[in-house]
Recover the amino acids of this structure.
């Protein structure tokens, strides 16, 4: 055991404590442990803790003995004070009143004298000699001594003091021993209780026990009222996170993604937002007089319902009536269908994912992502970032993607300019300028306005492309494709690839089958290879059926292309050399400038006609 304390350092609490106890060869229950310094592991910092270990001081035998004696003396003193006749007796004889001390151990003479004189006054002893009483106490004389002349003893009947608590919920009795008179009975006590009007919660067994065991001068609880039970206040169960941490997301590998801040409480239409557990009424109490004690009823929680929420009657539940962001502030709940960012989408906001419409008043910085179940509107510039919306996407300025920008819209996409980006939308794409970008539109690509320029990259449209200028005088490679839905074209290309792959597999299978059948005819085919032959033949049949199914789909696609009349490119200015035009399944490379024209497919070829407004 060490005298004072030791300081121990380690990676965690358990390791530090184990080290300190092992070094000093002591047990955990024999020490007091205090944490002086602690650091959690974060980023590149390692966890650390510093402990102060102090031994508990053991009491010596002398100290324990002293405390035991002190406790014993206090107990003895309490006995002397509380029990009147433990240390003296008063006898009324024919020649006078006598006192006899009955205790050898006399402590605190003043208290003893006071006790004796009080008893004498209680018994109405007249003209007693106080000096004799003092002397007998001082001399610790245990012989009977006369302290007063003859007088008749006053007989005092037993009694019971009744005490009622301030809240009228408890009743106590204190039995007083008879001094020569009649002892108090249970009937006496019940009579006194009745006179005071005490009728509720009585414990008759306790009263009887106190009488039988003569429990004098002790305060005994004999009645209990019923405490009122206050009702519980209403409780609210939130089915969404009330407080967002705004802390970066900790990844499994221990790194931190500062773009995922989890700022938005997205909810779906019909989603349960709040469940209210109604308040309870509680129960009234009863005092010892039989009077009802009113209780407090639980308070109802009033939640103000804002837009896009509804509380179902008698269900105490609040639901969202629209997709969006749930807001709970100052006791009011609402669902906002528009999420608005006052500034930029950057490290202060993290990535945005919202079940409604998103409005960005500033810019969308490189590397960040905005996703919306509805529309997206950006008033500033979109850099090398990702925008995905099930509705429309509108950029008041444009996107400078730096070959990292990606936009996907379920509706239309509108921007002043599109540079070095990838754009996919199911509706129309409208812009003033498209430069070196890959754009796919389910309907039309419209590039008009002041410049109306398409140069570089690939532009695909399900219907038409309109622009003022396509390509450049520098011969910039620009690919334009119209007349069929780009996704349908992609599906067709996939079918063609599958047909080629099946044909390759069928060719290999045919060779294998031919070889195995030749060996079988020559009776040189092992039994284990017979199973391979059967499986190969079954596989060949399956692939032939699959190939026919895909060929039919491919032919259907080609027939539809032949019958399609849509698919045009309109240029109100110039198409420069270096542009490749694809309309349905027809291709044309531009080698000479073409002005104020419309290109369309006719008899399987692309022809140039007058400009169609």
């Amino acid at each position: 055991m060490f005298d004072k304390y030791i300081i121990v350092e380690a990676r965690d609490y358990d390791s530090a404590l184990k080290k300190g106890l092992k070094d000093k060869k002591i047990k955990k229950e024999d020490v007091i442990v205090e944490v002086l310094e602690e650091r959690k592991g974060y980023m590149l910092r390692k966890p650390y803790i510093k402990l102060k270990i102090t031994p508990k001081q053991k009491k010596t035998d002398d100290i324990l003995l002293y405390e035991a004696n002190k406790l014993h003396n206090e107990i003895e003193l309490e006995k002397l004070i509380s029990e009147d006749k433990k240390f003296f007796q008063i006898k009324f004889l024919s020649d006078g009143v006598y006192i006899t001390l009955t205790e050898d151990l006399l402590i605190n003479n003043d208290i003893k004298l006071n006790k004796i004189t009080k008893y004498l006054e209680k018994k109405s002893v007249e003209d007693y000699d106080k000096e004799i009483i003092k002397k007998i106490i001082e001399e610790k004389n245990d012989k009977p001594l006369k302290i007063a002349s003859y007088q008749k003893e006053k007989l005092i009947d037993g009694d019971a003091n009744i005490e009622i608590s301030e809240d009228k919920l408890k009743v106590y009795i204190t039995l007083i021993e008879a001094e020569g008179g009649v002892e108090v009975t249970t009937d006496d006590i019940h009579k006194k209780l009745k006179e005071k009007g005490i009728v509720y919660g009585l414990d008759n067994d306790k009263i009887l026990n106190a009488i039988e065991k003569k429990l004098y001068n002790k305060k005994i609880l004999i009645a209990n009222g019923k405490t009122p039970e206050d009702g519980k206040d209403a409780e609210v169960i939130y089915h969404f996170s009330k407080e967002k941490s705004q802390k970066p997301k900790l990844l499994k590998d221990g790194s931190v993604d500062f773009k995922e801040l989890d700022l938005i409480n997205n909810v779906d239409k019909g989603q349960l937002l709040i469940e209210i557990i109604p308040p309870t009424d509680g129960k009234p109490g009863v005092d010892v007089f039989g009077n009802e004690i009113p209780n407090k009823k639980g308070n109802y929680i009033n939640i103000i319902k804002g837009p896009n929420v509804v509380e179902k009657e008698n269900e105490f539940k609040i639901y969202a009536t629209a997709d969006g962001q749930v807001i709970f502030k100052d006791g009011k709940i609402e669902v906002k269908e528009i999420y608005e960012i006052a500034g930029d989408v950057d490290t202060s906001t993290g990535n945005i994912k919202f079940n409604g419409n998103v409005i960005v008043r500033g810019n969308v910085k490189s590397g960040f992502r905005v996703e919306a179940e509805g529309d997206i509107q950006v008033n500033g510039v979109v850099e090398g970032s990702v925008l995905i919306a099930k509705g429309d996407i509108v950029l008041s300025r444009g996107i400078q993607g730096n070959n990292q920008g990606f936009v996907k819209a379920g509706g239309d996409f509108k921007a002043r300019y599109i540079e070095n980006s990838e754009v996919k939308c199911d509706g129309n794409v409208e812009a003033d300028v498209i430069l070196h970008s890959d754009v796919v539109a389910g309907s039309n690509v419209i590039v008009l306005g002041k410049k109306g320029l398409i140069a570089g990259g690939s532009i695909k449209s399900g219907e038409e492309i309109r622009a003022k200028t396509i390509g450049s005088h520098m011969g910039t490679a620009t690919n334009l494709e119209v007349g069929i839905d780009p996704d349908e074209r992609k599906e067709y290309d996939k079918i063609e690839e599958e047909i080629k792959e099946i044909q390759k597999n069928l060719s290999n299978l045919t060779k294998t089958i031919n070889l195995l059948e030749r060996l079988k005819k020559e009776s040189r085919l092992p039994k284990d290879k017979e199973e391979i032959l059967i499986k190969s033949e079954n596989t060949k049949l399956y692939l032939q059926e699959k190939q026919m199914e895909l060929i039919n789909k491919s032919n259907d696609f080609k027939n539809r292309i032949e019958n399609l009349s849509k698919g045009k490119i309109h240029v109100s200015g110039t198409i420069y050399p270096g542009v490749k035009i694809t309309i349905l399944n027809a291709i044309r490379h531009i080698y000479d400038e073409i002005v104020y024209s419309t290109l369309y497919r006719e008899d399987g070829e692309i022809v140039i006609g007058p400009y169609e407004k």
In short: DSSP finds eight helices and 45 strands in the chain. Helices lie at 13-24, 61-82, 109-122, 130-139, 186-195, 204-212, 486-521, 527-563.
